[in-house]
């Protein structure tokens, strides 16, 4: 599977590179804006996916720990909230980076 993926990526990069070099300077500049937009969208999507996955795993682990020992709620709740804040900050940083990247 890895070989198929790497071959597909190599072929795809060859196709994109050859079409970029075949265009004029003005056309290449306009197509690079589209690639920057695509990369910005991908950055936001990856950041949101990573944050959502991390948050769901953190909350599941915290709730499982509280369910096993209800007396540990006070000791588990604050670190869980702090972890969720850091994960959400990761998603927001992905948005900020993509926004700055797109408006460059």
Explain this structure:
With 104 residues, the protein is an all-alpha fold. It has a single domain (2-102), classed as F1F0 ATP synthase subunit C (F1FO ATP Synthase). 91% of the residues lie in helices and 0% in strands. The chain contains three helices and no strands. Helix 2 (25-68) packs antiparallel against helix 3. The mean pLDDT is 78.
The CATH architecture is: Up-down Bundle
How helical, in percent, are the residues? over 70%
State the end-to-end CA separation.
Answer: 37 Å
Number of domains: 1
The best one-word shape is elongated
The count of strands amounts to 0
- Radius of gyration of CA atoms, rounded to a whole number: 21 Å
CATH class: Mainly Alpha
Instruction: Compute the average pLDDT.
Output: 78
Any idea of the CATH topology?
A: F1FO ATP Synthase
- Contiguous low-pLDDT stretches (5 residues minimum) are none
User: At the fourth CATH level, what is the homologous superfamily?
Assistant: F1F0 ATP synthase subunit C
| Percent range for β-strand residues | under 5%
- Please give the largest β-sheet: none
Order of helices and strands: HHH
Q: Tell me the number of helical segments per DSSP (H or I, 4 or more residues long).
A: 3
């Amino acid at each position: 599977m890895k070989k198929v993926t790497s071959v597909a990526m190599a072929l795809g990069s060859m196709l994109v590179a050859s079409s970029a070099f075949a265009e004029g300077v003005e056309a290449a500049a306009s197509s690079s804006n589209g690639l920057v937009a695509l990369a910005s969208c991908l950055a936001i999507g990856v950041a949101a996916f990573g944050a959502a996955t991390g948050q769901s795993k953190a909350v599941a682990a915290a709730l499982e720990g509280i369910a096993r020992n209800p007396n540990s709620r006070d000791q588990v709740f604050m670190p869980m909230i702090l972890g969720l804040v850091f994960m959400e900050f990761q998603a927001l940083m992905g948005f900020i980076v993509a926004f700055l990247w797109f408006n460059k």
